[in-house]
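Thread: glycine complex, take 2
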Amino acid sequence: MKIAILGSGGREHALVNQMSLSKKTTKIYCIPGNAGTCHLAENVNLNLDNFESIYDFILKNKIELVVVGPEKPLVDGIADFLQEKKIKVFGPNKVLSQFEGSKTFTKNVCKKYNIPTAKFNILKNLKESIKYLNQVKFPIVIKADGLAAGKGVYICENLEKSNEAVKEIFDGKFGKADQIVIEEFLEGEEMSFFVISDGKSFKQFNTAQDHKRVGEDDTGKNTGGMGAYSPSALINKDLEKKIIDKIIEPTFKAIRDFGEEYIGFLYAGLMIKNNEPFLIEYNVRMGDPECQTILPLLKSDFLDIINACCEQKLNQSNVDWSDKKSLSIVLCSKGYPESYEKNVEIKNLNKIKNNKNNFIFHAGTISKNDKIFANGGRVLNFVSISESYLEARKSAIDKIKDLNWGGGFFRKDIGFKAID
Ligand code: AMP
Ligand code: GLY
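Output below.
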């Protein structure tokens, strides 16, 4: 089968890698890909906003299955566009991508279907928001409605910071703002919970814990993710049942009530307090770096699972996992998530070999004249599989030390809540 993976991050390198393990895969294209994907796939330099050019390429190259990595093309309707043209595509349609594309959409579903989430209010303009903020308890959480690449969420300790936040959002920092969500601050520990769905049924697709803050001990600015471990140390049978019964099942009931079918990964970002789950947000894709962390634990054939979803036969597929632990550490460009230098050469990379327990997934890399350069904030993901989180972390750190790249930094404490 000929497959196209859309995207260029560590998540997409992991998707390409997992697809390459299937005997049924004959060729993989990665659009646009990075300096890691090009070893297993053919990179194709097309813009993900240009659906027509992607369709032309698919047609010309007889591609049989398209897997969409990032949220933006999904929110913009690429699944609908390709499905109308009879192309098999893994990823939800435009209506259902609002689960990630619109915070108010998800909050309204939570309210209607009694899904546990932070108590919230939707506000339509600056004046209304400022008036409302005068009566809330702090800390309070303020969220821009649309896609904001993880940056549209403010956790505010006082009225002054809150007023600044709503002003920034309504001034258009994250694009045109017609409404915002102001919600209660939830205490607890976060967990990423994934399911995979074929439109008729869903199956669980493992759990992970992500470290979003740039600094050790989860301090400093928010990032796209500095590392993760899987499975989550918080998961247990009782919690799993609560997540399915109170959050996932009601969400699929809402989807059925909309008259829609969800095909793709659904990523529930949860807050867990006293073994009770609360939904913080939905994403309509795999997480990054959760994808890189989770996929190497998959024992079943990944292409079979994805293809079964597109053919609405997921109930005939097994989704089996290794019972080992996986941990990933992201090597970032110095300065990230603020400004950083681009086009910094990464030497020694070809000396570090992947094996069945150690993987390097590229993110912000490009290759020029047989050399590899960093061109993004998050550059490489070092993933290790082991019997324990501690051993996996040691092994990932050893590999980063072997690389010895002067242009980068990483967090040495990934998994600290489960390990230390
Ligand atoms: P989101 O983009 O909605 O995932 O929010 C980004 C991050 O902000 C989450 O991963 C949490 O760490 C934090 N966050 C969002 N909403 C809340 C909340 N209601 N209470 C506490 N933390 C939150
Ligand atoms: N790791 C967080 C995300 O993918 O949104």
